[in-house]
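Issue 218. Parser rejects a valid record. Input:
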Amino acid sequence: MMKKMKSKQFILIISGVLFIFLALAFGLFDISADKPKRIECVGEDLMVPSFTLLDLKGEKVNFADFRGKVILLNFWATWCPPCREEITYFNELYSEYKKDGLEVIGISLDRGNPVDVQRFLDKMGVQYVNLMGNDEVLEVFNNIPGMGPIQGIPITFLIDRKGQICRRFIGLTHKRVFEAAIKALF
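Output the parser choked on:
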C-alpha cells in the first residue's frame, strides 16, 4: 500500500513538473518583468557595415540614411513561412513605434523579380521599407566579427540609434520579444 502511494505521488510530481515545463516552453505563463531591461549594445566594433541596395522600384538606398533610428533589419523571402509570419509583427511594430523613431527594413533574398516581391508585400499590407538583397550584402553580414554567418532565414538584427548591432534574432521570433527589445532602446 505504501509503495502504491509513493508511486502515485511520484507520478503526480513528474506530471506537475512536466506541465509547468511545457507551459513555460509554449509561453502560457509570462514570468518576465513588465518593464524590459535596458539593452547594452555590443560596442562600436560591432557597427552595422555600410551597404547600399536597391529598393523594389530600382532606386538606390544607402543604409547610412537611417542612422539615428532604432532599426529592425530583417532578412527574409516570400517562400519562407516563418518570414511571412514575422511580416505581420513588423507591420504592427512599425505602425505603433515609427513615431518613436523605429525603422523596419526588410531585405528580400528572393532571386526573382522585384515586382513579384512588391506584389506579395502589397497583398500583406506592408508599410515599411523593403530592399532587394544580393550576395554582396550577405557577404558583409556573414563577416561581422563574433556574429557568425547567416545560415538561414528569417534573421533579424536590432540596431541602435548610433548604428551598433545590439541583438540578433535567429528564426521565427514573436512580436512580444521584438517589442521588449526595441522598447529598451527608446
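Fixed in the parser; the record now loads. The chain has two domains: 1-31, 44-183.
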